[in-house]
Protein 1
Amino acid sequence: MKLLQLSPSELRTRLQESGIWLRTGPFSLRIRSRIPHVAEGLAELYGQFETRHAHETFADFHVEVNAPGVLRRWLRPQVDFSFDGQLPFKPLPYDQAYPMLEWGLNWCVSMHAHQYLIIHAAVIEKNGGAAILPAPPGSGKSTLTAALALSGWRLLSDELALIDRKSGLIHPLPRPISLKNQSIPLIRAFSRDAFINRPSHDTTKGTVAHMRPPTESVRRQHEPARPAWVIFPRWSAGSATTLAPRSRAQTFMFLVQNAFNYSHLGADGFQVGTRLIDEVRCYDFAYSRLDEAIEAFDRLAARAPDGEA
Amino acid sequence: MRYRLKEYDAEAVAFDTASGDTHYLAPLALTLYRLYRDRPGLSRDEARTLAARYHDVEWDPSLDAQVDETLEGLCRIGLLQPE
């Protein structure tokens, strides 16, 4: 069954007791929480995801987001993220419970899923070709990813490119897209189809909210994609839309320096990374207007394996 | 073989199986690596001349310094053996 088939009270009860079991891409999660914002965020953003009874089913990651001890709860309301009973992070303000769940889930995957080379990058796909978008913070990666996902591209991930070490294919993990600060009103204005949950303010990244992944991307979350491009987006005000080829060797170096587990994989990581670069075209992409950016991506996709040209 | 090398046009990346480090080889570094790989015992003067010819540049003192510095770097990471 899908999560949206649970009533709000059933969702809250399960979260507080045995937990909610969810399938996201190749991973299964068991989430427990007594915090209303967490229940609200899951109901709003994960409605299309498969769920089962948590006590009947194996889960890869067992996580909890809850308030710590009673005294601290009253002095300064906070939340803890726990993974298998361990606390990998310091507590955050209570209002940040939902983003903390998302950040914690990213941490679970990036620290444990070594069957993949995991690169810090967004991935979107069209016509059978996947575009990997690695970029430093502030480059407009998530904003562009959200706009593309709302414009006919399939969302594979906003944060974690999972490169299968055997096949070289990219496995989807189409969880909510994290939007920050000005990106939130910008994406709301970009499309009426965008659902963005309540923002959390004053986080280490500023104001943060999450956009619901498109239903079609969730429906196809078990369908891997062949990498076709590595594109470094860079938003700057007034910039013309340009797509310029970039060095493949330097692209390789950037990707492995921004991979979570490259050093852990040793020579195999090198082999997986070089095979990826062999399969893709590498570009720098400058833009200031989302509509022009999408047109440029669509022109690329027309030359993809299943494209028209 | 200690190193795994992957060449991309005029550049390369190299993985050191001993240390786990990965290095980027810029065009001059890759040229010098290839020269010494294909012609062991090459003198430094010959390497400078051949590298300048390969990259189609006029000799000048700064090129000598660049070649020396790059060779030292390649030796330091163990991709070339010191003369």
Note: The mean pLDDT of chain B is 92.
Protein 2
Amino acid sequence: MEMKIVRPGMLTTVQDLGRRGWRRAGVPASGAMDAVALRVANALVGNAEGAAALEFTLTAPEVEFSEDAWVAVGGAECAEMAAWQPRRVKAGERLRIGACVKGCRGYLAVAGGIAVEPVLGSRSTFLRGRLGGLEGRALKEGDVLAIGAGEGRRLTDEAMRGWRIDPRVLPAYSTEPTVRVVLGAQAADYGAALLEAWFTVSAQSDRMGFRLQGAKLERSGAEELLSSAVSPGTVQVPPDGQPVVLMADAQTIGGYPQAAHVITVDLPLVAQLRPGDRMRFSEVALGEAHRLAFAREKQLAILREGLAQKLNHG
Amino acid sequence: MVRLMMFAPLGDAAVVVTLGRDIDDATMVRVRALVRSLERANESGIVDVVPAYTTVTVYYDAGAWGAGDRPVFVRVCDVIGRHVEKAEHAWPDVVPAKLEGEAVVREEGTPVEIPVCYGGEYGPDLEEVAAYCGLGGDEVVALHSGADYVVHAVGFAPGFAYLGGLPEKLRTPRKATPRTRVPAGSVGIGWMQTGIYPLETPGGWQLIGRTPLVLFDSGRATPALLSVGDRVKFRAIGAEEFAAWK
């Protein structure tokens, strides 16, 4: 089966859960900015949760399939198709999802997954490195993507009728979120300023990082730092005092002071912010961050289990 | 001898292991040994390893370690600590004579030779560097290609190696305004470091030459030509040899 891109939407790329094992060669993890949305969307169509799907930004693509297909949209809420609800698309039917009305990034999962050739173990597109996905680039009109022969086709309209996702499994998306962080190596240099201020997401925010605007963070220390590894979620502070939250395509090492790190379970909240949205940080202990990550995994496991019953007995 | 080993969390999904105070050969050997030990063991729950200068950062899957009796951070550090100990006991055996399974098989310690065409269109900042350093252009080339370098870190872009060992006389500040496009293969100087741009990217380093070698290719068995700890030499070549390489 094939999926044709009729209209590309905005910055639509193929993403899975990212590359593992290549950061030492300077290749970032990439992968879905909102990994929970990707995993849930995949689960809804019976895919392995790391199957490749489309990530779009503010505007969804319009697509057509060569055969009947099951699809689900997650992440941002869109104007013309309900999120978190699998639906069947007929062969040749044009699937319209529309603009994002809430959130910034949506995921279109297709039963079977998008079957581009993996590069360095992942189908994720790394735009700056021009690798992965389809020719390492954002999709454009007329592109055709192969869909894998997955197991998702056991879904039926009857089985899914009236089914609703348990909202507890989803991140607490907001346009003004409080994002939890664990402190970074240079946190003490900034005192309480990072945790007191509201920041606005600037227009210079992309898959590499979110630039925040707000109170200028003045560093008290002047110790020169050797470059060392960073991670998606790292909040680094360049000399201009405006923090940057590194995201999926961020470079692998950096030399700026690290004030904090967004915890894994709250990265989706950042991923869904639009330029102009506000956010603030609150501190949690490392153990709490791990407890929350484990709780999230449990919720996702329950969702997968419930859906598996539908898929097998629907 | 007391050997430094310090663990610090990098968010909730990585640990920074510091293995030395100074950027020296002994630290580099420890960094390399730990990286190799972790990669060979392929520990479940550990997803990536990034060496840089005096540190090795180990990435783990925050949700995969479950709710145990002891904190996840402690359990992850225990696993890493065992690898540090194993690597230190075993080395120099852990640093094998050949890098197995790599496309570029070379003797440990044998420098990777990078041919560079210096100056002209390939090195537009050679004159500026020479003027800043109070040297002639040919002296810059002789110094740069005469020195021994070691890869301290790989990052910024896939395959971009930060090389230590630049002669002090060649230290030149970065350009006030970075270039929006630096051609692939460009060899640059950024204050006390030198490096090669593997892909066309923006960049602020002073460009003194270009290599015809492909520094990064995701289709190769070893995509990045250089990894942390590798020794590097530059060899000056003319425009003809540069052209013949392609």
Note: Chain B touches chain A through 49 residues (CB under 8 Å).
